[in-house]
Amino acid sequence: MKEFNLTSPFTGEIIPVTVSLKKYNNGRTAIELLENDPEIGPVPYAVATVNMPDVLLADNEVLIKDYSENEGVLDFLIRYNIVTPTPNGIHSGFVWIPVAILNDESVWGEVPRAYCMNEEPEYYNLMPPPPDEINLDTGKCMWIIKDYRIWASSYQEAVELLPLIESF
Length: 168
Fold this sequence. Notes:
The structure is a single chain. Helices cover 11% and strands 40% of the residues. It is mainly beta and 168 residues long. The protein has 2 domains: 3-107, no CATH class; 133-166, no CATH class. The strands form 3 sheets. It has a 4-stranded antiparallel sheet with strand order 1-2-3-4, with no helix packed on it. Strands 5-6-8-7 form a 4-stranded antiparallel sheet, with helices on one face. β9 (133-134) and β10 (141-145) form a beta hairpin.
């Protein structure tokens, strides 16, 4: 089992823990953090998940208990690529319980490719821009590209005509 360093939210102490996957009675996955006691071996330190049977989850999703004595556990799980955050979650009482995707054990400890919870993901607009003008009689559209007014049937066609126009 891989060992990870968890910083206690109360004392700031660094605690080496291992991650163990268990099952709740309804078959959902539980993430348990075990502290290695030199005298008796691994002992439970915290359970990083909560079991809410009425909440619909995919097989690889878990509800993370990131409040109370578990404060900061979500950041720990993301940092070590144990889970991938999602924007989803549920309100329960006075707390927000985030939904995370449980990663395969083979990638635990690797640098996660996901964005951090306090950052926004980058989205690239893959759709072409709308035309700047449309001729209703001919159906042709006009796009302004590099200060050129290019009439074409599609944005792709306008982009393809740009080198020809620039060559004059």
